[in-house]
Design a protein that fits this description.
The protein has two helices and four strands. With 94 residues, the chain is mainly alpha-helical. It has a domain of 31 residues. Helix 1 runs antiparallel to helix 2. It is elongated. The two termini are 24 Å apart. The model has no long low-confidence stretch (mean pLDDT 82).
């Protein structure tokens, strides 16, 4: 059985970190996006760098979501706990 790094949110769609690996990945993503933003401030003279910035941001975000998908619970829209109090009781039918 694989270890779940990210759990489904109780309300809405998405995940939250559930293990130290999930928190480390999230922190690394935030650090890298912040570093990109800081580099944008210093290199704003070039229109080429703006393109590189957005492509890099898109790739980082896509990679982050892919890892969340592979190491997390199956995504789905949730409306909270069901009548029996189970975690998946409030999800929409698939």
């Amino acid at each position: 059985m694989k270890k779940i790094w990210f759990r489904n949110k109780e309300y809405g769609y998405g995940w939250y970190p559930a293990t130290w690996q999930g928190w480390a990945l999230t922190a690394g993503y935030i650090v890298m996006v912040t570093a990109l933003a800081i580099s944008l401030v210093f290199m704003i003279q070039s229109a080429y760098f703006l393109i590189v910035y957005f492509v890099s941001l898109f790739v980082l975000t896509g990679l982050f979501i892919y890892i969340c998908y592979r190491t997390g619970e199956k995504p789905g829209w949730h409306w909270g706990k069901g009548k029996e109090g189970d975690r998946d009781g409030g999800s929409l039918p698939r």
